[in-house]
Amino acid sequence: MPCKDTKSKLSIVLDSKDHLLDFEYSKITCNKEIDAGSGFREYCIGKPVDILSKLEFDDLLNIFQLGDTESQFLLFLEWRALSVALDQYQGKLIPKEDDKYQIATIAYESDRVEIKQVVLEPPEMPKIIPCRKR
To answer: In terms of CB atoms within 10 Å, which end of the chain has fewer, N or C?
Structure first.
């Protein structure tokens, strides 16, 4: 995410049996997709919510073998947003994170459920430390 926009949104679509049909994770202001290019989205589609909620980040790193830290970071953001949204949807308690992850809407239709989540920016951005000091 090269720009200063750190707010994001997640849209999730489940079928009537709580299997993932689709999800999109993107920045709020420009709608640019936040994606590590790892195949995580494709990996998740079709799986039930209870299985997706149990995915561990370390397991995903082993599955996708991402070499660079930027791709790993983007995968983490994508995985964390999806995991928290699904846990909230299922009514599971999560550790409080300054209310960073907020469900905006859950819409039930006859054959699907649509969940919209907003991921707020951290209250304070970490300081950037230069690689080399001059």
So the answer is: C
CA–CA distance, 81 with 33 (Å, rounded to integer): 13
Give the CATH number of the domain where residue 73 resides.
Answer: 3.90.1010
Residue 2 lies in a domain: no
The pTM (predicted TM-score) of the whole model is 0.83
Give residue 88's domain range: 8-119
What's the structural domain count of the chain?
Answer: 1
**Least confident among 10-24, 63-77, 86-100, 107-121:** 86-100
Q: Which residues contact 45 (CB under 8 A, 6 or more apart)?
A: 20, 21, 22
Q: Please report, rounded to a whole number, the percentage of residues in the chain having pLDDT higher than 70.
A: 82
